[in-house]
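Newbie here. two chains, one complex. Structure please?
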Amino acid sequence: MTAATDLTDVPDGRDAPAGTGPLGGGAVVRAARLHLVAWHFPALWPWGVLAVSFAINVAIYAAIAGARGSVTGGLASIYVVQLVACLQLFTRGFPFALAMSVTRRAYYLGAWLYAGLVAAVWGAVLVALRLLEDATDGWGLSLRYFGAGPMRQDDLLLQYLVYVVPFLVAAGLGASVGLVIVRWSYNGFFTMLAALMVLSGAVVIVVSRAGWWRGIGDWFGDQSSAALLAGWPLPFVAVLGLLGYAAIRRAIP
Amino acid sequence: MSTVVEVRGVTKAYGRQTVLDDVSLTLRENTIHGLLGNNGAGKTTLMRVVTGQVLARGEVRVFGAAPLENDGVLARVCFVSESQPYPEHYQVRHVLQAGALLFPAWDAAYAEALLEDFALPPRRAVRKLSRGMRSAVGIVVGLASRAPLTLFDEPYLGLDAPSRRRFYDRLLADYAENPRTVLLSTHLIDEVGDLLEHVTVIDAGRILLDEEADDLRTRAVTVSGPVAAVTRFTEGREVLHLERLTTVSRATVAGGRGPADSELARDLGVELEPVSLQDLVVRTTDHNRRGVLR
């Protein structure tokens, strides 16, 4: 038989006909637009959950007389829902797209393009809601829901980034977990959980033995809330993004 | 006619089990190819290799290029799988919207017409459809994609006989108007026998037959008559199958379609009949399973 070439040598789209470009730019945009088909599901759930969380907070603080200047962590709910939605992009959306002749590369880059645009738009909506919160003196209840604690930034650009970057973190975490499940199934997922537990245990032991807790605490204390929420997470997102790309290139759902 | 798909020496193993064993296959442009074989023969894996979904050793060319991760090639390929996954929240109409987005030659009006043909409610959630209706959604995508290379992997699971008939009719009619290359895997061989122009039979990961459907029908013959006469006729021939009642027997033998054969049959007083595609495939795979390789 003829000498077998290894199909696992993934071409970089160089064989593609004219018009698609070396990165398959058109294919990436089409893959991103795929998430706008049935858009109501990924768009309504995060805001629906946020609305419920907000309504509960308002109801509680309205009921508790004198709870002025209250702070709540309800805003985290929208990031958690976005994490789950991004996980689903890979456990459910990816096998479908692959079967519909989308390449892994185009799907992955398209999913990030979509997640990035979602973060950009939703971050702007959150900034608007925080400004509204300020203007209404905390919805008439002195409630700090959108500008809660460390989320609140005086500079509007920083405020925007503090809302946007956690969406990217949620997308990166959701994509990573989703890809682990797609590529290595739930055995891989639980192996990853176990490995993370071992790793964090080891870190705690090492840090305790070396007496580094104080230094670590000081370091965090020296960072501004904007750096902790919008600065340091970015390299973390970048690493997740690269790992995810490596994982999806060989993923067979 | 040019070649659309060229598979050469492809081998795929899952653990110790070899699913495809040095498979070579060529698909011609604008031809309906049948990929026939038993469950677990390797049909689905071969199709997933052709569409770049599965990595395997060997060489695969689709429209002259490696399909794996190739946006330009895959945009011209549509693969309808019996186990096609759909996102949880998708309704039927969302599947069509996705098809319109992803397949450049998608025909939206035709897709709508097919929905009506198969009585698919556009606003029904795909996960709530019956097995047969889910299959029909895949069929609609495969037909409406108008992809120059369309692969149907047992696309009719759960479909009732009238709907299957409808699928074959629509496929033929659309193929006549918009010629393209079709690879249809099935084990309902008799149903599609008339549809196929080229037939490939795969068993246990190996290609057993790969021929024009017309040639294939002349490959073998069924001979029936008195036991002694049938035995005389089959002497020195490859017997694929033999049934014997008390005084008469019936054998399927390779070849046997020449003028000399007809003369011999007349002399012996046995009857020669063409073999249906289904019988031929069953006999050939059985023959192979018994370890008597051709």
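Moderator note: The mean pLDDT of chain B is 89. The CA atoms of residues 30 and 180 of chain B lie 4 Å apart. Thread marked as resolved.
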